[in-house]
Amino acid sequence: MTIDTTMKIGIDLGSRKAKFALLDGGAIVRLADYDTVTFYKRFGRVIEDDLLLDLAGSGLFSAEELAVASVTVTGYGRNTISMRGARVISEIRAHVAGAIVQTGLKNFTLLDMGGQDTKVALVKGGRLADFVMNDKCAASSGRYLENMASILEVSLDELSSHWEEPVPLDSTCGIFGESELIGQILRGHPVARLCAGVNQTLVKRVLPMLKRFPGEKLVLTGGVALNKALVRLLQTETGMVSIVPPHPQHNGAIGCAFLGSGD
Amino acid sequence: MSRIGFTTTIPIEILIAAGKTPADLNNIFITSDKSQQFIEDAEVDGFPRNVCGWIKGIYAAVLESGIKEMIAVTEGDCSYTKALMEVLSMGGIRVIPFAYPLDRDPQSLKAEIEKLMAHFHVGWQEVNAAKERLDRIRRKIREIDRLTWEENRVSGEENHYFQVSASDMNGDPDRFEAEIEAFLEEAAARKPFEDRTRIAYIGVPPIFSGLYPFLESLGARVVFNETQRQFAMPYDTPDLVEQYRRYTYPYDIFHRLSDISEEIDRRHIDGVIHYVQSFCFRQIEDMVIRRRLDLPVLTLEGDKPSRLDARTKIRIEGFLEMLGEKHPMVNS
User: Fold this and answer.
1) What is the ipTM of this complex?
2) What are phi and psi of B152, to 5 degrees?
3) Domain A7-95+250-259 homologous superfamily, CATH
4) Which residues of A sit within 8 Å Cβ distance of B?
5) Which domains does chain B possess?
6) Which candidate in A50, A66, B42, B297 could, as Cys together with B56 as Cys, close a disulfide (CB 3.0–4.6 Å)?
7) Cβ distance of B301 and A135 shorter than 8 Å
8) How distant, in Å, are the alpha carbons of A30, A79, A98, A246 from that of A253?
9) Where are the domains of chain A?
């Protein structure tokens, strides 16, 4: 890689969190995130169909950084909103680039699980070869884990630490799953086993997508990759080596920043 | 002239020969400005949410349009049609069943066609005369298709429209033919498209709108509309029974795939969009399609009539980027 001293900002506007990355060449200078709704309310507005983000007002970047850095954006608003002064790229592109940059791998299956979206991509020779994405239903997403943690009255960290002896949960619907879980609480199952059951359900939902792209290495990104129990269960179910890059939640933002070199 | 509705393409030569006005109920449903309302009406009447949107749309379209007699394709399309037929017959609609034989047996197909002919009191002479009349129009539609893939002068949506309309000739063959002729004259003089990516669209026609222009806004164009082309009877077969035997849509996926593969090669396709309808049995066939086609396949799912949604757009963009990706994304 040639030495690159260009400052590059990458922004990934997710359904739950807005993620930011500042790169100096290939090196990560800063990572940050905001609750998406809070961020839009405080620093976003739409003028003539263009999204304007008050990056200076957000305090995430200095005036000097904003003056010299390129800005590349991806995220849920990709199609509905174009952002002024920024290059907009597709989510799949941003996530694959982020995973390649963060892991140094060129051949792998990527599983990105965010607040609503689950994407599975096959990367061959550093190139996107195929991908699938959840559609019509978001029961296989981070939001499901948040809801279930709240029903169980445990933190996401707590939920993420259990994988042994999962209590089977079978609802197709993430909302009906809540009442099913309540029923299982009444039966007196320990919380640890119920947490494991929730994690196991998520794995079962993404397996059909993962089975399309079998390989040796599975790179996990998105907020859900911070769930250690899930990573372990996935490894067991798929037989693939699971790799979580250093910054799974900021993977899209890092990918954006990296691709923003003005090529 | 009385209008005869039908649930999917049937030998309309028989209706034309009988002096009836053919009405493809799918077209009535999807082109109505009340198409979204139709789905809600059907659900209010008791159709489950997890049933194909086309069935619900057809149901409401029949009631709304005042059609009193219709042909229901009971074999070769989905089994939802059978229950639809039962429900509509209870409402006083006269329903005539028509079955494409699963094994494409010529004798069975001929018997089905002759049964339909007997119902409408027409003989082979009138039916063959109607076929000649319709084949003239179909040849002109074939020219529109050729201008699409060979000369690149026709958009994916125009290609879709003229071929999909061939199922009922928009209810008026003469007027439709005049429309085709005017279009051909205009299109032949156009500057060719300069798109980068050539797409095959396979599966039933989309229930959502805006797909074709969206693809074109990203430098890709549909140059093969599989099912729509089938509705336009593309093989120029002199014999009527043989024509509806070669017609691929109502038969097995392998019969369809042989046509798809041939056209993919001939039209130099870069990628395939397989459209599937929510709750349709054809979603299962996606597995076969993915295994049998060597090209990248993007499977899109549609449920109700609407504009192309943001999620589907994200997936299309990613797919087109993937097709256009000539170099590794990140050099390291």
Assistant:
1) 0.70
2) 55, 40
3) ATPase, nucleotide binding domain (3.30.420.40)
4) 1, 76, 78-80, 90-93, 96-97, 100-101, 104, 106, 125-133, 135-136, 258-259
5) 3-124 (3.40.50.11890)
6) B42
7) yes
8) 11, 17, 7, 13
9) 7-95+250-259
